[in-house]
Amino acid sequence: MCHAEAMHVTPPAPSSNVVVLVVEDEPAIATAIAHRLSNEGWTVEIAPDGYAGVAAATRLSPDLVLLDVMLPGIDGLEVCRRIQSERAVPVLMLTARDDETDMLIGLGVGADDYMTKPFSMRELIARSKALLRRTERGVRTAEANAANQPAEPPITIGDVVIDRAQRRVSRAGDQVHLTPTEFDLLVTLASSPRTVLTRERLLAEVWDWVDASGTRTVDSHVKALRRKLGADLIRTVHGVGYAFEPPEPPET
Prior knowledge:
Layout: E1 7-9, E2 19-23, H1 27-38, E3 43-47, H2 50-60, E4 64-68, H3 76-86, E5 91-95, H4 100-108, E6 113-116, H5 121-146, E7 155-157, E8 160-163, E9 168-171, E10 174-176, H6 180-190, E11 197-198, H7 199-207, H8 215-229, E12 234-237, E13 241-244
Helix pairs in contact: 2-3, 4-8, 6-7, 6-8, 7-8
C-alpha cells in the first residue's frame, strides 16, 4: 500500500533546534500550522496520514508532535500509541469533536494535552511552548539525578507515594502509570494537600499558560487522574478548582 509522504517546512531564521511533526490530513490547516510554527524558528514537517506520521516520527525523533485524531489510514489514537511505544515524546492532540470521552482516551494512550478545533494559533503556540518547557525541565531533572545532585524527596501521603526524582507514582504499593502532564498536575495538587487551587492557577503552574479558555483542559486531566488513582483523592470545589485530599487510613 502506498502512503503519502511527509512534507518538510524550513523555518525562515532558525533560532533553536526544535523539531515539530504535524500529523494533519487537511492541507489548509496543516500548512497554516506549519507556517506559524516555523515563524517561531522551529523546523516543521507535515505528515498527511497516520502511517506517514508514524514513519516520520521514527525518522525525525521530533521534540513535539501535533496530532489530529481523525486521520486516514490509522487514526490519531493508534498513531499516538505507536509513537509512544518507540520513544516518549510530548503529543498535543487536535480534535474536531468536543467529546470528553475522546479526550480522556487520548490522554490514556500517551497524549499530553489536547485542543478542540477551531483554535487560535496564539493558543496553539502557547500550548506547544508549555509542553516543550516541561520536557526541558524533565531533562534537567534527569541530568541532576545522573550527577548525583540532591534529589527532591518523595511525597508520601497515606498510601500514595510520589517519587519526584524518578517521576513514578504508586498507590497501596501498586505502580500507577501517568502521562508527564498528569504527573506534574498530581505533584502540584499533592504539594499543597487540602488547599483549593483554582483552575487558572493549575493551568499556570502545570501548563505554563494563563488563559481561562484552557480550564477545560485542567478538568479533563483531573478526570484522567481520578480514573487512574481513585476518585477519592481529588476534591472538586465547584466554581473554584480542586484540592488534593489525603486518603483515609485503612480501618484496623
